[in-house]
Design brief:
Blueprint (H helix, E strand, L loop, with lengths): L3 H9 L30 H11 L1 H22 L4 E11 L3 E2 L6 E2 L3 E15 L3 H67 L5 H35 L31 H8 L4 H22 L4 E13 L3 E20 L2 E16 L2 H7 L2 E9 L7 H67 L5 H37 L4
Antiparallel strand pairs: 1-4, 2-3, 4-5, 5-8, 6-7
Helix pairs in contact: 1-4, 2-4, 3-4, 4-5, 4-7, 4-10, 6-9, 6-10, 7-9, 9-10
């Protein structure tokens, strides 16, 4: 019995208790991550796996890619817009001959083609400011991805430590049950020999039943902690998983990091320079300021350059052709010979018409134009005024939201340091309490063995020690968690 306390303390250490696996079937093929799961995962591997599998990380990355694509789209929109045009048609029935402007009932086929260029040379710096604004938003998206990864990493750390704590508590419960069972066996021998009263056996069995119930609860808590970790990793509950222990020393106060002289304001002063949520909020404030420039730009003139080229074809197009044969034709003129009028006749070559070829028409019917247009806003429904007011309000809102983010960070750091201090002090007090209760239990055990202490007082001494030992394990992991969170605000990393 005198070795019980030492055994209990050894099992409560982070580096000593064995990991508790989840023995289940393999996960479905679609749930298996890109790389095979190791038999045992470290904290680093768990965080890496969570970052790969969590949909929130993938969604934030897609949002950032959308923002990058929008920036590229806006950048390319500064280039001239060149468009091509081609029309093909057939006119039936009564229509206008495009070459004679006369009415015709002939079927006419038409075709036209052209190119047009339009380039906005100046529009009140709208494109420039839009590009800057969207670039700031895209950069803020990068910090959003980092903030999401930080949140996932912190959740993974918490779930990981909960598993380790549950494993240690279950190991401690196993020791408690074993000690109570041996006490029952020894009391049975004492009752049979007439050394002690039978009611002491009943008290010992009652204590054993209580310890077994505590072990069932500890096993249930471990199953819950394992499930929580699997969900954080986005793995099926049937995934076999083990976790490694964290490197740490014994239970003495100096073995766990204490807050010491850590100053919350100094942590905040440093953290606000690199925490991604703060940097993203500051960038969105700058983007809102560009929104004000965009609104003012609506009052500037818009200068555009345009150029066009085109050509056309019509099946009704004809041209005159002359042959080599000469024919006599009477003109409208007359000559007077001896008082007699004679009509004037001339010899002219034969003539006719022929269809102009497709490519010939395309070459002859070309048209070109170049122009500059200036649009000056005079009265536009006071859009500049209202949009400027709206942009100014958006800027103030972004500034307020950024201030809220910084205030939230400061409060989170204040709370983290305070919780670290409280957890460490509780851990130190519990360590001292366990030391005292250990001595008290040893004295009670010796008196009980000598028949100088009843079973009720003995069980009370054991229960007090067991409860303090469990509280010490929980305080240990609470202190470790709070220390890591505070360190995260110090340098932005968990590992």
């Amino acid at each position: 019995m005198k070795h019980f306390i030492a055994t209990l303390f050894v099992l409560s250490l982070i580096g000593q208790a064995g990991a508790q696996p989840i023995h289940t079937d393999l996960p479905a093929p679609e749930a298996i991550p890109a790389r095979p799961l190791s038999t045992t995962l470290t904290l680093e591997q768990c965080i890496e796996l969570a970052l790969q599998n969590q949909p929130s990380v993938r969604q934030s990355e897609l949002q950032q890619q959308i923002a990058d694509n929008t920036v590229e789209q806006t950048r390319k929109s500064q280039l001239p817009v060149v468009s091509g045009l081609s029309n093909q048609g057939i006119n039936f029935g009564r229509n206008v001959d495009p070459y004679t402007n006369g009415i015709t009932n002939a079927q006419i086929a038409t075709n036209s083609a052209g190119l047009g260029l339009n380039w906005t040379v100046f529009n009140g710096f709208q494109l420039k400011n839009t590009l800057i604004q969207q670039g700031l938003a895209a950069k803020a998206g990068l910090y959003d991805v980092a903030a999401t990864k930080n949140a996932v990493s912190l959740n993974t750390l918490l779930a990981y430590l909960q598993v380790l704590s549950a494993q240690d508590l279950l190991s401690a419960s196993d020791v408690q049950v074993e000690v109570s069972r041996r006490q029952v066996e020894r009391t049975e021998k004492l009752v049979k020999s007439g050394t002690t009263a039978p009611f002491n056996l009943y008290d010992a069995k009652s204590q054993l039943a209580n310890d077994e119930m505590q072990r069932v609860q500890a096993r249930t808590n471990l199953n819950t902690a394992n499930l929580t970790l699997l969900q954080v990793l986005n793995l099926p509950s049937t995934t076999p998983l083990q976790v490694t222990r964290l490197e740490s020393g014994g239970v003495a106060n100096g073995d766990l990091p204490g807050p010491g002289t850590t100053d919350a304001y100094q942590l905040y002063t440093k953290a606000r320079t690199f925490m991604p949520e703060v940097l993203a909020a500051d960038l969105r404030t700058k983007a809102a300021q560009k929104g004000l420039d965009l609104a003012k730009g609506l009052g500037y003139p818009v200068v555009s350059l345009n150029a066009n080229w085109g050509t056309s074809y019509s099946s009704a197009a004809r041209r005159s052709v002359y042959g080599t044969e000469m024919v006599e034709q009477t003109t409208t003129g007359f000559v007077d010979v001896a008082g007699q009028a004679y009509p004037v006749k001339v010899m002219t070559p034969t003539s006719g018409t022929e269809r102009i070829g497709y490519f010939g028409q395309l070459g002859n019917n070309q048209y070109k134009s170049v122009g500059v247009s200036v649009r000056i806003p005079i009265v536009n429904g006071l859009q500049v005024r209202y949009r400027t007011t709206s942009a100014r309000l958006q800027q103030q809102l972004a500034e307020s939201q950024a201030e809220g983010v910084r205030r939230g960070l400061r409060q989170a750091i204040d709370q983290a340091v305070n919780q670290w201090q409280n957890a460490y002090e509780r851990y130190a007090a519990l360590a001292q309490q366990v030391t005292v209760l250990e001595q008290s239990y040893r004295a009670a055990e010796a008196r009980y063995t000598a028949g100088l202490l009843n079973a009720v007082d003995y069980n009370l001494s054991k229960s007090n020690l067991d409860r303090a030992a469990v509280n010490l394990i929980q305080a240990r992991y609470e202190t470790l968690l709070r220390a890591k969170v505070a360190e995260f605000y110090r340098d932005g990393t968990l590992l």
